[in-house]
Write a structure and sequence with these properties.
The protein is globular. It has a single domain, classed as Cupredoxins -  blue copper proteins (Immunoglobulin-like). By secondary structure, the chain is an alpha+beta fold. The protein is built from one helix and nine strands, in the order αβββββββββ.
């Protein structure tokens, strides 16, 4: 149980850490604080968070597009962009100008809301 066991343990730990880093990069690439990077052939679709509403409330997009929600203000409170089914969650967007971007790989209809202000609702239709 000497060096061989230690070597396998260290190798397993390094492999686990690499998997965690890879998963973090994938999550950041597919949804997170606004990075300014759209899909190669797509475009940005902007949704403003302003006056306790998502504007526009309904958006139709292609799978190649990236959607960007930005806290534009009108009030100085936190908001979230949270899927009704839990598929995505921005976490608190607590300052004006802070954004959250996301791409959808699967066509369908996705509904979301602000976790803090549940009356704020939106719909994304992906073709």
């Amino acid at each position: 149980m000497g060096n061989s066991f230690r070597r396998r343990t260290v190798t397993a730990a390094i492999g686990f850490m690499a998997a965690v880093v890879a998963a973090s990069v994938t999550l950041a690439a597919n949804g997170g604080r606004h990075t300014g990077t759209a899909a190669a052939d797509g475009e940005f679709i902007d949704i403003d968070i302003v006056d306790f509403a998502f504007e526009p409330a309904t958006v139709t997009m292609d799978t190649s597009d990236a959607i960007v929600w930005t806290h534009r203000g009108g009030e100085s409170t936190q908001h979230t962009v949270t899927a009704d089914d839990g598929r995505f969650d921005s976490g608190p967007l607590d300052a004006l100008g802070i954004g959250f971007d996301l791409q959808f790989e699967t066509p369908g209809t996705y509904t979301y809301h602000c976790e803090i202000h549940p009356e704020m609702k939106g719909t994304i239709v992906v073709r």
